[in-house]
Design brief:
single chain; 257 residues; Glycerol-3-phosphate (1)-acyltransferase; 7-stranded mixed sheet; 14% strand
């Protein structure tokens, strides 16, 4: 039943909300706080979360502040990760894989909403996409990224791509490690079936990037990974292997001048 309700919501809500965003963009309506571009993705995510019977519990919501742009680096195990974050965050843009842009209507709608597509198969194009994202952040937007690159089959973290952390450094924005737990129970990778469940969203201690340079990207990625891995083990008993990185602990290492 939940699967049917979610699919029905996608079929009915996506064209209506998507067309509204496309028309607003064509009319030149400004993308301001509280505008349609702000509210439409949140409404879309909220409708799908409700259709799935998903209860969202947010931890440390104060770290979700909208006063400054932030990079929310989240783990990714389910397509429902997108709906949960879309319904929870404020004043944000997703960074999405380029393949999604080819979906009829959906691709045009999310581009009109200001979301950024990244072609991961082309390094030059990918970094150009991150530069575009950094420019949006300088205009006051936060961005959501999945540094693992693709969805996993379990909650153990996989090595992070460096692009999202290069973006954070370029924008001078803090990285907020964001841990989702429960979306795999709603709909695991490789399945379209939906089951009601509780999803926990943890906004962890931000990793500052002000004053850092491109050479610090590994440090920032490692700190984000370590904080997410520690939260997974502390709250849910999930252990993560350390990513390929420097041998020493970076938590206590001072930032370069």
């Amino acid at each position: 039943m939940r699967t049917f309700l979610v699919l029905l919501t996608i079929v009915l809500a996506t064209p209506v909300i998507g067309l509204a965003v496309i028309i607003a963009s064509l009319l030149g309506i400004p993308d301001r706080p509280g505008s349609l571009f702000d509210r439409a993705p949140r409404l879309w995510g909220s409708l799908l979360v409700r259709a799935g019977g998903v209860r969202v519990v947010v931890h440390d919501a104060a770290r979700m502040q909208t006063g400054e742009p932030r990079v929310y680096a989240a783990n990714h195990v389910s397509w429902f990760d997108v709906f949960v974050l879309a319904s929870t965050l404020r004043r944000y843009k997703f960074i999405a894989k380029a393949e999604l842009e080819r979906i009829p209507l959906f691709g045009a709608a999310v581009r009109a909403a200001g979301f950024i597509f990244i072609d991961r198969s082309n390094r030059t194009a990918a970094f150009a996409g991150y530069e575009a994202a950094a420019a949006r952040m300088r205009r006051g937007f936060s961005v959501v990224v999945y540094p693992e690159g693709t969805r996993g089959t379990n909650y153990a973290l996989r090595p992070f791509k460096k692009g999202p952390f290069v973006l954070a450094i370029a924008a001078g924005a803090p990285v907020v490690p964001t841990l989702l737990y429960g979306t795999r129970e709603v709909s695991p990778n490789g399945s379209f079936a939906v089951t009601s469940a509780t999803v926990h969203v943890h906004f962890l201690e931000p990793v500052p990037t002000e004053g850092l340079t491109y050479g610090d990207r590994d440090r920032v990625a490692r700190l984000a990974f370590d904080r997410m891995a520690a939260a997974l083990e502390q709250h849910y008993g999930v252990c993560c292997a350390s990513p390929p990185s420097e041998a020493e602990s970076l938590e206590a290492e001072p930032a370069p001048a």
